[in-house]
Amino acid sequence: MAVNWLGLVSIGVFYIIVLGTGIWASRKSKREEKKCSGNRSEVAMVGGRNLNVYVSIFTMTATWVGGGYILGSAEMVYNPTKGLVWAVAPLAFSMSLIIGALFFVKPIRSKNYVTLMDPFQQKYGNKVSAVLFIPALIGDILWIACVLGALAYNTACSVSCLLTRLLNTRTYSSITMSDGSAKERSWIVSVNSARRLCLSFARWLCVPFILASPFSANFTVAAVTKLHQEPWIGRLELEDAGRWVENILLIAIGGICYQAFYQRVLSTATDAQAKITCYAAAVFCPILGIPSILIGAVAASTSTHI
């Protein structure tokens, strides 16, 4: 079979856009540093507290709508023992952002904090805050390691599979070719949260093709005719209600303890902008989770018909 040049060019264009966006963002950040009046730590950690509200909305939403959210929601719907009723991330993330906007934005901004540890240091002193900093540091290190590992692995696997199809090469050859792309992309993604969110919107483009595929089962008909059997809907028994509520509270309240949330909140110019950022992200998070739910529902319904 011939090489799929159109698909190959599409991959090249995609990586050029990624690289170009990263270079543009890097140069823009250096220009913005000159405009900031705060000290160096404020410029580095909270962008000099003058981040544009639109960029803040994109960044806050992209902070929650990541790989775990996208893949986890689809997997939960697909899982025969769970289903849609257990895919609580869209609801819980929205709750977390709303709670943060209502109760935490104004107090933490009024003190001009830079990190989440600042109020503990102010209240309990340096020694106690140093001890509290240890689990936060370990958690962030392990989280970053997981994200970078998953990024490199998933990028290498996805690109290698795509190259295998487009170039008609063996899998191990494609993995070798894509390895450099994965490593290059790992540093560029850190300044591309807005671009990553645009790609999340692009997932909606996949949904019509998945629904129209001749290999996909009609999950809406299956849901109506076999509601009590269809695995993608799921069931919530009374004895599991406590665990279901616990899952929601774990994400909703646990998200408030996330340093990245306060970094976004403290980066905006005013309290009003910070709250708008949270409320807008609370709306976008469930919307961007719908494609994952639909994909999981189609996959679960199709697997039951095979």
TrEMBL record:
InterPro entries the UniProt entry points to: Choline_transporter, Na/Glc_symporter_sf, Na/solute_symporter
Major localization listed first in the record, in broad terms: membrane
Bilayer topology: Multi-pass membrane protein
Domain of life from the UniProt record: Eukaryota
Transmembrane regions listed in the UniProt entry: 6-25, 51-72, 84-105, 126-145, 204-224, 244-266, 278-300
MF terms in GO: choline:sodium symporter activity
Keyword Transmembrane: yes
GO CC annotation: plasma membrane
Keyword annotations from UniProtKB, A to Z: Glycoprotein, Ion transport, Membrane, Neurotransmitter biosynthesis, Sodium, Sodium transport, Symport, Transmembrane, Transmembrane helix, Transport
UniProt key word Zinc: no
GO biological process: one example: acetylcholine biosynthetic process
Localization in the cell: Membrane
Similarity annotation: Belongs to the sodium:solute symporter (SSF) (TC 2.A.21) family.
Protein name per its UniProtKB record: Uncharacterized protein
Organism: Pogonophryne albipinna
Lineage of the organism: Eukaryota, Metazoa, Chordata, Craniata, Vertebrata
